[in-house]
Recover the amino acids of this structure.
């Protein structure tokens, strides 16, 4: 990242910067993976230099076309998606996207996934070789093809195995993104921390479905999809609250954030920063509105530094 002038905080200019040891953000607002493309698609709407950072669409060793359509459905205060991790693949990302991303000063977090432990290791190693990649975010809500399709994220033993292996290969700040589709998320959180995660993001989407009453069949070709958007906020928020008290590593709060107030709730529950996903689809400029709204709230409430809000 290019060097930045230090922030001088004052009652009129609250310091929103976030420090997570060897990783820092100019403010706590990060765009969530899969909802912000490779960052570049949002430059007509958002000055990326003013954002805390963004997570890329989930990357894999080979390009992927994703699932057959229909793969997106609206559902009340949320949406369901079964995109199937469509992405351009590691090689094209490094050759075509990263050099263009490099001109922006926000944090670049590369989200990645694999079908086996070995694939996660290869991705962590390959992405770490790029200077402009500031952090890695491991999406472990993926089936382990060598263990009968059991999702890595669903079993603390698998979490420890895949995170431990990727940790050894990753030369960057390593964030592990947890699935909420478990009985007790603090167990998988503890496993990821024990295996060497530098931070955790909670949560990924919640499994759900929509029935088509015309065809009397599931609407999504994949049958189920991941529920995201405002509908999931209270559920993901309580997971952040409990996990913040179960582990020592910093957390990114993710799920249903669309306003500065939503983001502040996550920080007050114990998250160090937040990620904004589905809201980008109904307002592509929402991330910077949240940054501005946080600044105004801090000013109005005499808060000089966002770190004053952390409860722990
Ligand atoms: C269309 C879509 C695609 C997504 N793709 C990814 C992905 O590639 N990797 C990942 O870790 N999370 C992915 N997610 C999950 C989001 O990053 C986020 O965790 C989730 O949507 C909850 O946040 P939200 O309610 O603000 O959307 C995706 C979500 C949506 C809606």
């Amino acid at each position: 990242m290019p060097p930045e002038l230090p922030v001088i905080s004052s009652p009129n200019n609250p310091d929103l910067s976030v420090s997570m040891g060897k990783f820092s953000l100019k403010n706590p607002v990060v765009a969530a993976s899969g909802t912000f493309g490779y960052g570049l698609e949002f430059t007509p709407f958002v000055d990326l230099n003013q954002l805390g950072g963004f997570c890329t669409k989930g990357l894999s060793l080979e390009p992927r076309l994703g699932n057959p359509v229909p793969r997106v459905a609206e559902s009340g205060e949320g949406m369901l998606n079964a995109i199937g991790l469509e992405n351009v693949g590691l090689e094209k990302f490094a050759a075509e996207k990263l050099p263009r991303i490099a001109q922006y000063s926000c944090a670049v977090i590369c989200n990645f996934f694999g079908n086996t432990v070995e694939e996660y290791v290869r991705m962590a190693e390959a992405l770490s070789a790029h200077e402009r990649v500031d952090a890695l975010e491991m999406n472990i809500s993926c089936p382990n093809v060598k263990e009968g399709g059991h999702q890595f994220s669903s079993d603390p033993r698998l979490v420890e195995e895949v995170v431990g292996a990727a940790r050894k290969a990753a030369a960057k700040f390593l964030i592990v993104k947890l699935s909420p589709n478990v009985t007790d998320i603090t167990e998988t959180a503890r496993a990821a921390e024990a295996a060497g995660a530098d931070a955790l993001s909670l949560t990924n989407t919640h499994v759900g479905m929509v029935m088509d009453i015309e065809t009397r069949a599931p609407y999504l070709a994949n049958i189920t999809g991941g529920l995201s958007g405002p509908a999931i906020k209270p559920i993901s928020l309580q997971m952040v609250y409990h996990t913040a008290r179960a582990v020592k590593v910093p957390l990114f709060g993710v799920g249903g954030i669309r306003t500065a107030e939503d983001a502040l709730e996550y920080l007050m529950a114990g998250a160090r920063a937040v990620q904004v996903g589905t809201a980008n689809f109904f307002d592509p400029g929402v991330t910077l509105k949240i940054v501005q709204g946080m600044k105004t709230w801090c000013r109005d409430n005499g808060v000089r530094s966002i770190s004053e809000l952390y409860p722990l």
